[in-house]
Amino acid sequence: MGARVLIVEDSLVMRSVLKKVLKMAGMDVSRYFEAANGKDALEILNKEWIDVIFTDMHMPVMDGLEFLGELNRDDLLKRIPVILVTTEGRPEIIRKAVALGAAAHIRKPFQPETIRRILEKTLGKEYERGMDQTLEGSDF
Amino acid sequence: MREEWIKPLKEAISEVLETMCFLCPVPVEPHETFNLDEEDPVSTEIHFRGSGGGTLRIEFSKGLASLIVESFLGEDHSQMDDEQRRDTLREITNMIGGNLLQRIDPGGRLTLSVPSLCPPSAVPTRGRPQLAMDVEGHALRVFVEEPREEHCHDGES
Lengths: 140, 157
Fold this sequence. Notes:
The structure holds 2 protein chains of 2 kinds. Chain A is of the alpha/beta class. Chain A is built from 6 helices and 5 strands.
């Protein structure tokens, strides 16, 4: 089974690019969900099991820090690894995000290889199994 | 004018366009005379708020705007709608702004605004650009200005 991924990002084109990059990194994107902000993401998380979350920081309605705070208040949701994909680089903001449970931080612009390496590190064997299955039927 | 921003700005634009669009911008000198060869380029704007901040305005020739959108999304330009085009240019501007911020303000003193696409009527009288780059035969010009009123709104939050 590949991992179930949730992308939280207000830019429609950035969600599309991230989905492509995840596919290039070997993820099975058939189990993929997306939300435009933290509030919409929480609604998805109430209905779907998610293995890993990629989130932007600057979003309308509910930004990345508020979203991480909400996850952190839930005993089940706070176990889901959260990877920040953002232009945000201010040290105090990143420190706050890490304190709230962010597992990794990827700065935009990013190389597909960076996403692959962070996924491998974050998901470990589960990612490797998913990648094997995806590559069997991959058009890459 | 923020002269000290120019060198890191060249690096930021190069890194973003090379990494996300596989395009190689080349600085053009003298940049003051580098024209877009068209009347209505696409302009984006992002503000750096805080002490020592300013405004970054990027003008893309129409040809470059199309090339960036196609390269970023990996799709034929004719298959995209206007919102995808606008969203792509905003996102590229956001990345350039974030990348520049990291270079000029590692301590985190400044904050970035949400980038916006400027309607032609909102763009102030053009002065001389502080930087011009040739991107695969297309033109990009950058204006760095002192903080001023934020007047470009394109309906996005």
